[in-house]
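We emphasize that the prediction below concerns an isolated chain of 150 residues; any contacts that depend on oligomerization or on bound cofactors are therefore not represented. The input was used exactly as deposited, without trimming of termini.
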Amino acid sequence: MSEDDGKAVKKTVLLYPDEKAGDRVALDFINEGMLKERGRIMRAMLLTGAAMMQANKKLPFMIAELFDENTTFADIQRVISSAIPEAFAPDDAMLRDVLSRLNAAPAMPPAEGGSSPVADSARAASEPTPEERNAAEARRNASHLFGDDE
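Result of the prediction step, given as a token string:
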């Protein structure tokens, strides 16, 4: 059976919980799930690694070596930032969103002979495009999907 004929493909992965802490944690996550959900859990773990590998081929290996019971999200962010420095840099849409929220706050007075960059940015951001409104709504909706784990 070829892997591209649209049928399910079964792959086997060996975990070494007695040798690697990350393997033990992953196995615990899998075993905590209901028997019917375990395949779905393993698929999610695999696809998450594939998504990270698409961004940087070394990333899943680096995180796997770090991973244990004490690994925090901040630890993972640091690893990602070391492989992809711009990964957590604010993007233009987010900056426009923040500036538009600050639009109601009094603007800084313009410097002598010029205008205030914050006021100019806020004015430019006061008219979000439909795409920006959709993105902001999607972020708000996404923030409500999962409870805060910490």
